[in-house]
Design a protein that fits this description.
The protein is of the alpha+beta class. The protein folds into 2 domains: about 90 residues, GMP Synthetase, Chain A, domain 3 (2-Layer Sandwich), CATH 3.30.300.30; about 80 residues. It has 5 helices and 6 strands. Helix 4 runs antiparallel to helix 5.
């Protein structure tokens, strides 16, 4: 039996094209586009980019600094539940921070980490309010849900958004 390499090669190329093309279309039309539409329609979300993996969804957001990040995330998880399925969701918030906010956050991080480690979440707003006096005009907003603590810092037109997971195993990735 003589093998003909050209028909075999053509069959392989067509098979890979169909398989990869089908997977790519499924990923785009059944997952990424619907999730992007869901997140884009939430008030206060300026820009969104979603990436799907077999076990994880990564959502990159640009938000209005005056909205409640906790409410945005709850709305994403509620409305996107059918698309997310059992995947872990990771959020990356694009902010407009500056050196003053970053330095203030670095100096306040010890108190926040201590409160998180001791699961004294009610101490976080108190500690941040005490530290707030160091930077004139700094606005600090803290919120919490059953999974995360959200800290939003705003100084003039600059802002920083921090999502702190409430599970102690994930605290080391801040």
């Amino acid at each position: 039996m003589k093998f003909r390499p050209i028909p075999i090669l053509v069959s392989l190329v067509i098979s890979f094209s169909v398989l990869f093309g089908g997977w790519s279309l499924y990923n785009s039309y059944a997952l990424t586009n619907p999730m992007t539409d869901i997140v884009s329609n939430i008030d206060g979300v300026n820009d969104v980019n979603t990436t799907f993996d077999t076990e994880q969804v990564t959502i990159e957001l640009s938000i209005d600094p005056n909205i409640s990040l906790r409410e945005v995330i709850q709305q994403i998880e509620l409305e996107g539940e059918s698309v997310i399925n059992n995947r872990e969701v990771t959020y990356h918030i694009i902010d407009n921070s500056n050196d003053k906010i970053d330095q203030w956050w670095s100096s306040s991080l010890f108190d926040v980490a201590q409160a998180m480690d001791n699961q004294q979440y009610g101490d976080i707003p108190l500690k941040l309010e005490q530290q707030k006096q160091k930077v004139e005009g700094l606005e600090v907003k803290t919120e919490m849900d059953d999974q995360n603590v959200y800290v939003q810092l705003k100084l003039n037109e600059h802002y920083k958004v921090i999502i702190l997971p409430r599970t102690s195993a994930e605290l080391e990735v801040w």
